[in-house]
Design a protein that fits this description.
The protein has about 525 residues and is an alpha+beta fold. The chain has four domains: about 30 residues; about 100 residues, Elongation Factor Tu (Ef-tu), domain 3; about 230 residues, no CATH class; about 130 residues, Porin, CATH 2.40.160.160. It has eight helices and 17 strands. The strands form two sheets. It has a ten-stranded antiparallel barrel. A seven-stranded mixed beta barrel has the order 1-4-3-2-6-5-7. Strand 11 and strand 12 form a beta hairpin. Helix 5 runs antiparallel to helix 6 and helix 6 packs antiparallel against helix 8. The chain is elongated, with a radius of gyration of 45 Å.
């Protein structure tokens, strides 16, 4: 009986020993403890550790080789002592940086070793590369935002100023098209009269006209075969036409007079076209110079419109050259009347030019509307600054907070700020969305990943704010604040800090809002 009882006690004792051993192993694993016989200690010098904490991971080539054992302030710099695997040999040309696991994870030390041939021999502290300062980044961001705002204001003013020029150019173009249309109609009527007179001239002269047409066809055929035979054929055709003109000279004189009047009107049209095209090209060139680089899609539209206007200008110049050629040939008496009045292509080109001009003007209007719509987005953007001064019962110290917010027309909000508590400075960078009296925020709160929400119990008078700080950690911090407006743009604050901990802190203070 006693032996059996002793046997049971031995079993229980063995189970207890095994359990305690497993528990010890788990605790040692959780604390990343390693026997000192397999480890070595290195000292690293940093100007700024940027939130690195004790027991942080030390890695090389992406593998964990140790942990941070202590962080000590040594006057103007910080000394970090790390325990790493004894097998690791750090060589000259190394680089030591403080990095972040993932995007918003915990910070750790990464060692990038030097070339294989150079080994360190002394025990002096290693030199590490400090992470960038958030304060410097915020200053640079603020400077960039200010420059961007100035550039947008300049661009907006330039576009607004040139809108008047574009509208004036479009108005002038429309007036030019109206005047051109009337002149072209009158010229067509004069040419119709000329054609009617030609029909009268050819009346009773069918034989001569038939002979002239035959010779003309013969001339065209011979022109393709041998250019040297053109001159005799032209002279023969001219003699035939002169015989017709001698018979009906009064009618021909009246027709020539009408054609001369048409020539004068076409010359006047030429001067007006040149003036309008030059003014239009100058106005559009000034617009393209000032808005270049602001809106790529609008720039392509305006460039296409310029190509259309240049095409229209070329077509108009072609028409005018043809008209001058007709007038000169008639006044010289060279060629045949049938060839001189062959001007339907010119009028078709004028009509095509008018259509192209209308199309170009429409495209300029579309581009102007698109630019206006893009600029409307920058209208109505509100800027707001907040300053908070409070007292924390847990640290028994004052704390300051400065926030800058951008509130566009859309329901989204963008906030950046600094939180100062004693010598500790942290930053806030948040983006949020408004749902009526409720605003949900996300980003960095007190330099850690966080989420928050603001709710107005009474709009712009009494509100409640809840912030979750360090949501990627196992035990995030939860802060609650209430605000009550006592004066215009002045609020009384009271709340609790880290309410999930055993010793939450009480915050009391004031907040001022500047719009």
């Amino acid at each position: 009986m006693k032996a059996k009882r002793w046997h049971n006690e031995v079993k229980v004792g063995l189970m207890v020993i095994i359990g305690l051993s497993l528990l010890s192993v788990l605790l040692l694993k959780a604390s990343r403890w390693q026997p000192s016989i397999n480890n070595q200690y290195i000292k690293i010098r940093f100007d700024n550790v940027g939130g690195l904490v004790k027991n942080a991971q030390v890695s090389m080539y992406g593998m964990e080789i140790g942990k941070v054992t202590s962080i000590d302030l040594m006057g103007d710099w910080v000394q970090v002592t790390a325990q790493i695997d004894k097998k690791v040999k750090i060589r000259e040309g190394y680089r030591i940086v403080i990095d972040v696991i993932g995007i918003i994870g915990e910070k750790y030390i990464e060692i990038i070793n030097g070339p294989l041939t150079n080994k360190l021999t002394n025990d002096d502290p290693l030199i590490g590369t400090s992470p960038p300062s958030i304060g410097d980044i915020l200053i640079q961001v603020n400077d960039i935002a200010k420059r961007s705002s100035d550039a947008l204001n300049l661009a907006k003013n330039a576009i607004i100023a040139n809108q008047d020029n574009v509208r004036s150019s479009i108005k002038d173009a429309r007036e030019f098209i109206g005047e051109t249309k009337d002149i072209v109609k009158k010229t067509i009527n004069d040419l119709n009269i000329l054609l009617a007179n030609i029909n009268k001239i050819t009346g009773g002269k069918e034989t001569d006209v038939a002979q002239t047409i035959t010779e003309l066809k013969k001339l065209v055929t011979e022109l393709n075969k041998d250019r040297s035979r053109i001159l005799p054929a032209v002279q023969s055709m001219t003699e035939s036409i002169n015989s017709i003109i001698n018979v009906s000279s009064p009618i021909v004189a009246g027709s020539l007079e009408n054609l001369r009047k048409s020539s004068e009107e076409v010359n006047a049209l030429t001067k007006k076209i040149d003036g309008y095209v030059d003014d239009l090209n100058k106005s559009i060139s000034e617009l393209m110079t000032q808005v270049d680089g602001i809106a790529d899609s609008s720039d392509q539209k305006l460039q296409k419109a310029l190509i259309d206007f240049n095409r229209a200008s070329a077509l108009l110049n072609n028409v005018l050259d043809r008209a001058d050629y007709i007038i000169e040939e008639v006044e010289k008496g060279n060629g045949t009347l049938g060839k001189l009045v062959k001007s339907e292509d010119s009028y078709k080109q004028i009509n095509e030019t008018i259509a192209v001009s209308k199309s170009a003007i429409g495209k300029v209007n579309d581009a102007t509307d698109r630019i206006n719509k893009k600029l409307n987005y920058f209208d109505g953007i509100d800027m707001r600054a907040e300053y908070q001064l409070g007292y924390n019962s847990l640290s028994e110290s004052l704390q300051n907070k400065v926030n800058f917010s951008i509130l566009p027309k859309s329901p989204y909000t963008y906030t950046a700020g600094l939180f100062m508590k004693g010598n500790d400075v942290k930053y806030d960078i948040l983006a949020g969305r408004r749902f009526g009296n409720l605003t949900i925020r996300g980003g960095f709160i007190k330099s850690k990943a966080g989420l928050g929400l603001d709710y107005w119990l009474i709009p712009n008078r009494a509100g409640l704010s809840i912030d979750g700080v360090g949501i990627t950690h196992r035990e995030p911090e939860v802060d609650v604040d209430a605000s009550v407006r006592v004066f215009r743009d002045w609020y009384l604050l009271f709340g609790a800090e880290d309410i999930t901990s055993s010793e939450p802190g009480i915050n009391v203070g004031i907040k001022a809002v500047f719009k």
